[in-house]
Design brief:
DNA-binding; mainly alpha; single chain; 64% helix; Serine Threonine Protein Phosphatase 5, Tetratricopeptide repeat; 6-stranded mixed sheet; elongated
DNA sequence: GTAGGGTTAG
C-alpha cells in the first residue's frame, strides 16, 4: 500500500511518505528521473526548487505512469513555489485520472480553496473518463453552490456521464439548462446532446437536436450514426452515412468506429460498405484499422482479419492493445499459431502487458490452437484475472477432453473470489460432458442456482449431451421433458446423437420428429434424420427430408480446413483442386488410401452423409477439406512435426477414421480442431474416444 | 490551465 495513494492524509504523514518514495525511486535509478534531475540542476540553484514549473508541466502533459507521477507529485507538494501553482494542480489531476486514479485527483481538487470552472471541468472529466458517472454528476451539481457556472466545456462532459449511466432524466434537465444559457448553439454542446439522446435510445430527439443545430460537423453526424448503431439499427446508421456523404462530408475513422456496435452478423453487403469506407478514408488512423479488423473478426472472416492485420504492420502502423485483442481471436479461429506467437512477442516487447483483455485474448488464441501449456503460462502470469480469464482456461481444458483439470480450475476460481457467470457454467458443463464426468456435471448444474444463474438453453444442451454420452438416454429424454424452457435443435440434436451411439430407436424417432419440426434445413441433422426414418420404414418422412435437402441444403457454408505453414495460412475446401500442389496432394492421398485399406479401411460410399453439420451436398462425393489439409501438411513438414488443422464444421466419421489411420501410417500426431472440440490423433487412436 | 463522436476478450 502506497501512502501517497490514500485520500485523507495529514501533511506530516504525507511529507514522510514523499521522502520515502523519493529515496526509493532514486535508489532504483529510473532513467527518466535521472535525466530530469540532471537537466534541472541549474534551475535548482536558481530557484531553490527541485524542478521548474515549465518542466513539471511538460512531464505531466505526457501522462507519466503512476510511479513517476507520484514522485513528481511529491516534489511539487513539498516545493513552496510549485505547490501553489494552479495550472500544475490541473495537470496533476488530469494525469492521475489518466492513470485510473480519479480519487487522488479528487484529493487535489478538494485541497484547492478557490476553484474556478476549469477545476470543476477537469474533475468532472476525471470521473467521467473512469466511468464514475454518478460522481461526475455530483460534482456538476455542487458547482452552483460554489458560484461557478457550467460552460461549453462542462456540458459535453456531463452529458456523456448521463448517457454512460443511462440517466436520461438528468440529461433532459441538463438539456433544459443548456437552452437557458443559450449554449445549445455551441457545436460541442450540441454534439453532446445528439450523442446523449442517441445512447439513451431517443433517436427522434437526437435527430431533432441535430436538425436544429446552427453549425454541424462530422462529429455531429457521427454522433447520430452512433445513436442508430448503438440501438442495433444498422440500416438507419448507414442511411445517415449516405446523408452525410450527400452533404460532402467525408466519413472518418470516427464514423467507422460509430458504426461498429451494429456490425456483428452484418450482411456481406454491409461488410463491403465498411471496407469501401475504410479504403476511402483520407487518413487511416490506428482506430480505423482496428475497427476494420474487428468488423472482419465479428463477421466470421478471420482470414481477411489476419491479412488486414499483416498489411497494417507492413504499412508501418504500430498495433496497440486494442488491435491485438481483436486480432488474436481470429488467429485462434484459423489456428494461425505462428502469427499468434509473433503477436504475443510483439505485445511483450511493446510492454502492452499487463492488460486484462489482451491476456484473455492470448489465452483464448493458444487454447484454440491446442497449445494448452502456453495458454496456462499466460494465465499463470496474469496479475489480475477476471471471470473471462478463468472461463477461457476452463474451456481450454474442456475442448481437449481434460475434464478433471477444468473442474479443478473451476474450484480454484470459486476460491479466488471470481464469481462464475452463465458462460463460466457453460464451459465447465461442456468440459464435464467432453470428459465424461457425469457426477461432476450434475453437481455443477445444481450449483448454478446457488450463484443465481438461471439455466439457459446452452446449459440444458450440455446436460443432455452429458447424460446421453454416459448412455443414460432415457434420463436425457426425461431431462428434456422437464426443461423449463422450450428445447431447441441443439438439445434434440444432442439426444439424437446419443440415440445413434446407443442404438435407441424409439427415443431417436422422437428426437428426429422434433428436429424435423425445428427447421431441419438449419439443423444439419437432416441426414441422421432421414436415416432414422428409413430404418423405421417411414418412407414418406424420408422423402420429405430428402426433398428439403434437395431444395435448401445446398447453400450452406462449405467445409473449410486451414493449415498454417511458415506463417501462411493454407485454406482447403472440400473437393478443392485450386491449390498449387493439388496434383501432388491427390496422388499422395491415393497412396495413403491404399495403405489404409490394407489396415482394413473401407471408404463409406455415403460417408459424407454422416456429416453432423451442413457440409454442402454438392461436395458429398468430393474429398473433404481436412483430408486435403492433412496430406498437404504431411508433404510440407518434417517428420515428427505435429500437424494442426482447423475445420469450420464438425469432422465426419469417414475423415475421423482416415485421420486415425494416417496418424498410424505416417507416424504423425494430427490435431484437428472442429467446431465442437479437439481431436488428437496419435498411433491410430483419437483423444475423443470416437464419440463426438 | 480544460473539449465533443467511436474500437478490445470467455
Amino acid at each position: 500500500m502506497n501512502a501517497l495513494g490514500v485520500s485523507h492524509i495529514n501533511p506530516q504523514q504525507f511529507v514522510k511518505a514523499v521522502a520515502k518514495a523519493l529515496s526509493r525511486y532514486i535508489s532504483t535509478a529510473k532513467q527518466p528521473l535521472n535525466v530530469l534531475l540532471s537537466v534541472q540542476k541549474p534551475q535548482i540553484a536558481l530557484r531553490k526548487s527541485f524542478l521548474s514549473q515549465v518542466f513539471c508541466s511538460e512531464i505531466l502533459d505526457q501522462y507519466p505512469d503512476i510511479k513517476t507521477l507520484k514522485v513528481l507529485h511529491a516534489k511539487i507538494f513539498i516545493d513552496q513555489y510549485l505547490c501553489c501553482d494552479p495550472s500544475l494542480g490541473i495537470k496533476l489531476m488530469r494525469a492521475y485520472a489518466a492513470c485510473g486514479e480519479p480519487g487522488i485527483a479528487r484529493h487535489i481538487f478538494d485541497e484547492i480553496t478557490d476553484k474556478n470552472v476549469v477545476f470543476f471541468n477537469v474533475m468532472i472529466r476525471s470521473y467521467m473518463n473512469n466511468r464514475f458517472y454518478r460522481d461526475a454528476l455530483l460534482v456538476y451539481k455542487t458547482m452552483s453552490s460554489h458560484g461557478v457556472d457550467a460552460d461549453n466545456y462542462t456540458y459535453p462532459c456531463v452529458l456523456k456521464a448521463c448517457s454512460g449511466s443511462d440517466y436520461l432524466w438528468v440529461g433532459l434537465q441538463i438539456h433544459g439548462a443548456v437552452v437557458k444559457v443559450g449554449l445549445d448553439l455551441n457545436l460541442f454542446v450540441g454534439n453532446g446532446l445528439v450523442s446523449m439522446y442517441g445512447k439513451c435510445g431517443q433517436l427522434v430527439e437526437a435527430r431533432g437536436v441535430l436538425d436544429g443545430m446552427a453549425v454541424r460537423d462530422v462529429v455531429s453526424w457521427n454522433s447520430m450514426v452512433a445513436g442508430y448503431a448503438q440501438n442495433g439499427r444498422f440500416d438507419g446508421a448507414l442511411e445517415v452515412c449516405r446523408e452525410m456523404e450527400g452533404l460532402n462530408l467525408k466519413p472518418d475513422a470516427g464514423t467507422m468506429a460509430s458504426l461498429f456496435p451494429a456490425v456483428s452478423n452484418a450482411s456481406s453487403d454491409n461488410v463491403l460498405y465498411m471496407k469501401s469506407m475504410f479504403m476511402k478514408l483520407a487518413k487511416r488512423s490506428l482506430v480505423s484499422w482496428n475497427v476494420m479488423i474487428a468488423v472482419y473478426v465479428n463477421n466470421s472472416m478471420p482470414t481477411e482479419a489476419v491479412d488486414l492485420y499483416l498489411q497494417m504492420e507492413k504499412e508501418g502502423i504500430e498495433p496497440d492493445a486494442v488491435s491485438i485483442s481483436s486480432i488474436l481471436p481470429a488467429c485462434g479461429d484459423i489456428s494461425a499459431l505462428l502469427i499468434g506467437r509473433k503477436i504475443h512477442e510483439y505485445a511483450d516487447k511493446k510492454k502492452l502487458r499487463p492488460n486484462l483483455l489482451l491476456e484473455n485474448a492470448l489465452i483464448d488464441m493458444y487454447a484454440k490452437c491446442g497449445c494448452l501449456e502456453d495458454a496456462r503460462e499466460v494465465f499463470d502470469q496474469m496479475r489480475i484475472r477476471d471471470v473471462v480469464s478463468w472461463t477461457s482456461m476452463i474451456s481450454a481444458y474442456g475442448i481437449t477432453g481434460q475434464g478433471h483439470e477444468a473442474v479443478a480450475l473451476f474450484s480454484a476460481m470459486q476460491r479466488s473470489g471470481s464469481k462464475p457467470d452463465s458462460i463460466a457454467f457453460v464451459s465447465v458443463l461442456s468440459a464435464c460432458s467432453h470428459g465424461g464426468l457425469l457426477d461432476e456435471g450434475r453437481y455443477f448444474f445444481d450449483l448454478m442456482s446457488k450463484y443465481g444463474v438461471a439455466p439457459r438453453i446452452e446449459h440444458f444442451a450440455c446436460m443432455v449431451d452429458l447424460l446421453g454420452r454416459a448412455g443414460l438416454v432415457d434420463e436425457a429424454y426425461h431431462f428434456i421433458k422437464q426443461m423449463t424452457i422450450e428445447p431447441n435443435e441443439r438439445v434434440w440434436g444432442a439426444l439424437l446423437g446419443a440415440c445413434q451411439v446407443y442404438s435407441n430407436r424409439n427415443i431417436g424417432l422422437i428426437a428426429a420428429d422434433h428436429l424435423f419440426q425445428l427447421a431441419p434445413e438449419q439443423s444439419g441433422y437432416y441426414v441422421l434424420l432421414s436415416n432414422i426414418y428409413a430404418k423405421a420404414g417411414r418412407w414418406r418422412d424420408v422423402a420429405t427430408v430428402r426433398s428439403i435437402m434437395k431444395s435448401r441444403g445446398l447453400k450452406k457454408a462449405p467445409g473449410v480446413s486451414n493449415f498454417e505453414l511458415q506463417g501462411h495460412i493454407h485454406t482447403f475446401l472440400a473437393g478443392d483442386q485450386s491449390h498449387p500442389q493439388s496434383k501432388k496432394i491427390y496422388q499422395e492421398l491415393d497412396v495413403l488410401v491404399g495403405k489404409m485399406k490394407e489396415l482394413g479401411y473401407v471408404p463409406e460410399t455415403d460417408s459424407a452423409l454422416h456429416d453432423v453439420e451442413e457440409e454442402d451436398k454438392e461436395y458429398h462425393l468430393a474429398v473433404h477439406s481436412e483430408k486435403l489439409a492433412i496430406v498437404f501438411a504431411l508433404l510440407n513438414t518434417e517428420s515428427g512435426t505435429p500437424i494442426r488443422i482447423t475445420k469450420n464444421l464438425r469432422i465426419c466419421r469417414d475423415c475421423h477414421i482416415a485421420a486415425k489411420l494416417i496418424s498410424k501410417i505416417a507416424v504423425r500426431e494430427i490435431i484437428v480442431r472442429d467446431t465442437h472440440r479437439f481431436h488428437h490423433f496419435q498411433d491410430g487412436v483419437c483423444s475423443c474416444g470416437d464419440y463426438w
